[in-house]
Amino acid sequence: MKRYYLLTYGCQMNELDSEKMAGILEENGWDSAENLENADLVILNTCCVRAKAEDKVKGKLGQLKKLKLAKPRLLIGIGGCMMQQDNVGEKFLQQFPFVDFIFGPHTMDRLNEIVEKSCTGRVLELEDDRFDVPRLPIKRESSFRAWVSIIKGCENFCSYCIVPYVRGKEVSRPLGEIVSEVEEHIASGVKEVVLLGQNVNAYGRDTGKVDFSRLLKNVDEVPGLERLRFMTSHPRDFSLELVDAISKMPRVCEHLHLPIQAGSNRILKKMNRGYTREDYLRLVEYIREKIPGASITTDIIVGFPGETEEDFALTMDVVEKARFASAFTFLYSPREGTPAAILSDQVPREIKKKRLNYLMERQNKISLNYNRALIGTLAQIMVEGPSKKDSEIYMGRTRTNRPVVFPGQATPGSLQDVRLTDCNTHTLYGELQEALPNE
Ligand code: SF4
Fold it and tell me: What angle do CA 51, 102, 63 make, to 5 degrees?
């Protein structure tokens, strides 16, 4: 049997696309290879969000070139949104003559034909945008969790972000299609569903029909679903009514990822984020009031062009006030093709690094304190499986998305009660509680 190997870069949306690519290939007689060396086909599913992504992909292609020299019948393909951007796909095809085919997110449904065609000649299949991408087969990585795409594209045009230029306009999937996909996943054993989109709160904006809270309610009511999550949210589109609605949905987990990006109104405006620090903090306060115990996580960019010490201090002020459970922190790096990349007041790298270190140090302490406050409490976790480092130790997640490791074993996807006994900055430690005799 022919074997494929997929390498995925970027966000959950790309992980989901890779699951679909695997689904298409397996439906057409391919099997997964354990490693690159055993594969007859290697596909790189690329991401264009970070400026460094292109270098990473090029580095991997260096390794693949050697592999192809040793194994000339190996097929190499590149997909994903990086290929869709400007003329990157065409450029890569010229620059890397050992690459057999290039495709994009909008031509992924034709993957099998593309692979077949590439056996007789090199293929470039890109399309700017398509609204009729059919439902694709899927090979899920997890037996109990499924990612479900609800909206594609983004029209926010944050000034640092390339996504709107490559992923196109917002297009919401019909409600009925989403609900029936969730029902199918539940029927196949899924317990947790994660709704995905670049800006999930914009769901329905293009159709003017069902909005995000109505969609959530419909999914929340699917029988057999245990947990419901969604990402990514945009603080501007996250209304107080949505918080009210979520507080009444039992399966929606008490974890909200709300990227603030910066704490200075001046920088937020330059980023074109559409909210102020005051709006954001009001939203956080409202969430804490309506959804007790909710964990809020965020993304923060340090060193956006023109960021002064005062602006950075305002970011730190939000960090202190919002008490995020955790934060993904990034150094601003100019992304070619975005308005922010041509701003003249770029912050020197040394200053950006200093600010980032300071932010990370402080956020780590806040995360540690957040975890420490949970020690001694009982938490319900959904078991994920053995920990990567030690198969005697298992790992699960709380509804608030905190990872918990515990000694012993339990079935992946099962819900277990654990007593939290210890923690470090990013992980909680716990002990499984005995099930009641008649459970
Ligand atoms: S909301 Fe902003 S950061 Fe997020 S994908 Fe859209 S443009 Fe990019």
Answer: 65
Cβ–ligand 1 contact at 234 (below 6 Å): yes
- Ligand 1 contact via 45 beta carbon (within 6 Å): no
The finding on whether 355 has its CB within 6 A of some atom of ligand 1 is no
Structure tokens at 271: 């980023």
338 CB less than 6 Å from ligand 1? Answer: no
DSSP assignment letter at 193: E
Are 126 and 102 in contact by the 8 Å Cβ rule? The answer is yes
Question: What is the H or E stretch that residue 219 is in?
Answer: helix 212-220
* 202 shares its domain with 112: no
Distances (CA, A) of 170 to 130, 206, 209, 214, 322: 11, 7, 14, 18, 30
Domain assignment present for 138: no
Left if phi > 0, otherwise alpha if psi is -120 to 50, otherwise beta: which for 51?
Answer: alpha
Task: Ligand 1, residue 154: give the atom nearest the CA.
Answer: 6
169 lines ligand 1 (CB under 6 A): no
- The whole domain housing 114 covers 3-125
What is the full per-residue pLDDT of the chain (439 aa) written as tens digits? 899 999 999 888 889 999 999 999 999 999 999 999 999 999 999 988 877 788 889 999 999 999 999 999 999 999 998 898 878 899 999 999 999 999 988 888 999 999 999 999 999 988 766 555 667 888 888 999 999 999 988 999 999 999 888 888 899 999 999 999 999 999 999 999 999 998 999 999 999 989 999 999 999 999 999 999 999 999 999 999 999 999 999 999 999 999 999 999 999 999 999 999 999 999 999 999 999 999 999 999 999 999 999 999 999 999 999 999 999 999 999 988 899 999 999 999 999 999 999 999 999 999 999 999 999 999 999 999 998 888 789 999 999 999 999 998 899 999 999 999 999 999 999 999 976 455 4
Distance 192 CA to ligand 1 centre (A): 25
Q: Residue 437, exposed/middle/buried by CB under 10 A (0-12, 13-18, 19+)?
A: exposed
Query: Are 106 and 201 within one domain?
Result: no
**Closest ligand 1 atom to Cα of 234:** 1
In a domain, 278, yes or no: yes
Residue 43's alpha-carbon distances to 5, 107, 372, 391, in angstroms, are 6, 14, 43, 30
Cα(314) to centroid(ligand 1), Å? 22
CATH number for the domain harbouring residue 60: 3.40.50.12160
Q: Is the CB of 49 under 6 A from ligand 1?
A: no
Residues 186 and 317 reside in one and the same domain: yes
268 assigned to some structural domain: yes
